[in-house]
Amino acid sequence: MRIVHLANHCQLIGNGIVNMMVDLACSQADAGHDVVVATSGGRYEPLLAAHGVRHVVLEQSRDPWRTPAMVLGFNRLLRDVDPDVVHAHMMTGAIIARFGTWRRRYALVTTVHNEFQKSASLMRYGDRVVAVTQAVEKAMIGRGIRADRICTVLNGTVGTPRRAQASTADPLRLSRPSITTVAGMYERKGIQDLLRAFASLRATHPDATLYLVGDGPDRADMEALAAELGLEGWAHFAGFDTNPVRWLAETDVFVLASHKEPGGLVLSEAREAGCAIVATDVDGNPEMLDRGEAGWLVPARAPDALAAAIGSLLGDAALRADYAARARRNLDKFTVQRVANDYMAVYATALDVFRQTHGRRPRTALRSS
């Protein structure tokens, strides 16, 4: 099968959409498919090339004045590749793939990664729409997508080819007991709640240290809050790390305090690392943690509840070991290979929908007949 993946970029900056796309494209190419990734570029091109994935520069932007150039570039790509399936991971790609050519000869698949964004509604234009968790699927049905046009493919990172691209820095030696989050510095990630929870924990666990791994536009505000709470020297803003797994491998408790989290890849990574996990009971987090069997779920925007859960794990080594063991169970569903297999089934359905909708066979059927 000839497959084109569309995204705005393929930068190595911790973007979950890009990371998932790279994993999928590499796995599909490894299975023998002809795979092209079309983005504005980034540091993942060498990894893609190592797996036989061709990267094509295609600028994708929300700026209306760029639309003619995007459409021209996309049509050049179609003439070059003549794909069976175009898989759009971001809104701009979905729009140009649906409306950027006169006589479409490919099935269009769209994945809703960030349902909380208003623009997620535009992903409805796929012949088949994919949600990264059942929570996202339910939300998108509530926004008007027909139930027979959408399905769920759960995110997973076990066996990711990106591990080969990871930093080769020396193993970490974190202060104990340690609490770690790996998250972008955005308000929706609940970093402010975690900082307040950690401040209250200092009364009962004065030796605990908090590590915040990630970067983003709200970092300065979070650093200011940490200083206001008197956490200097105890809350460490580590910035972005290309190899977050080394933090997960060394921490005592991993925390994801998000207000919105459709299907965070980091929970799959934390489970594989065997972390005792505390996460907010929002969106896709319960599914990523087996409805609480593989991690401790707490309400969002509730620093006191967050502090209580973290404190219970820090104060009870047996309980912490139990949660770490529970995290490692049932990991087969989080393999990149399972994700790739599920998407190939989605592609087959999308090709069938294309044929029924347009009254003609897509390119795959023409080639095989």
Automatic annotation (TrEMBL):
<protein>
    <submittedName>
        <fullName>Glycosyltransferase</fullName>
    </submittedName>
</protein>
<feature type="domain" description="Glycosyltransferase subfamily 4-like N-terminal">
    <location>
        <begin position="15"/>
        <end position="156"/>
    </location>
</feature>
<dbReference type="InterPro" id="IPR001296">
    <property type="entry name" value="Glyco_trans_1"/>
</dbReference>
<dbReference type="Pfam" id="PF00534">
    <property type="entry name" value="Glycos_transf_1"/>
</dbReference>
<dbReference type="GO" id="GO:0016757">
    <property type="term" value="F:glycosyltransferase activity"/>
</dbReference>
<keyword id="KW-0808">Transferase</keyword>
<dbReference type="InterPro" id="IPR028098">
    <property type="entry name" value="Glyco_trans_4-like_N"/>
</dbReference>
<feature type="domain" description="Glycosyl transferase family 1">
    <location>
        <begin position="176"/>
        <end position="329"/>
    </location>
</feature>
<dbReference type="Pfam" id="PF13439">
    <property type="entry name" value="Glyco_transf_4"/>
</dbReference>
